[in-house]
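[Q] Does anyone have a clean structure-token version of this?
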Amino acid sequence: MKKKQSNSLNQVQKYLIHFTLRVMFTIVFVLLLLIGFKMNKDFKMTFNEQVYHQNFPFSEVKEVYQKYFGESFSFKGLVEEEKEVFSEKISYKSKNLYQDGVMLEVSSHYMVPSLESGIIVFIGEKENYGKTVIVQQVNGVDAWYGNIELSGVKLYDYIEKGKLLGEALDKKLYLAFQKEGQFVDYQQYLS
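[A] Here you go.
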């Protein structure tokens, strides 16, 4: 029994050391950004352009991070597992080509799941799509969900595959997929 407690204590210590190092790295990174803002106006303008006017490539940052630092920090084993309340795939009655993607006929009050894990990079109105949510998926593809009312998710939230994004406003759900700024065929992403 003592050996088991000792192993779990060592594991907690390793997690704390790992977590502390990551926090320190983040603090240094933020300080370097602040110094860059203070010392160089070109840096500030470039940063603003990249962050506020372009779609940030979260999937590329994740790949670089994993290459140099390994997998992201996990609390598995330290925290009890959460129970899923909602997890499913998209189901629909029919589909028709629409604009740059597809229009799905869904049931009334249809709860829309995320097709892939990713970060919500846009929430707002898009012409011909209505209320739209764009998820930059971990595979580098931006998935557009149109005609949707959000359910508890916010801009820059990370959402897991199959988790609830929102509710279709009527019996129509619009989907479009964009990679590197170009719309791509929806069939390879809608199973």
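[Q] Thanks! Anything notable?
[A] Residues 2-54 form one domain.
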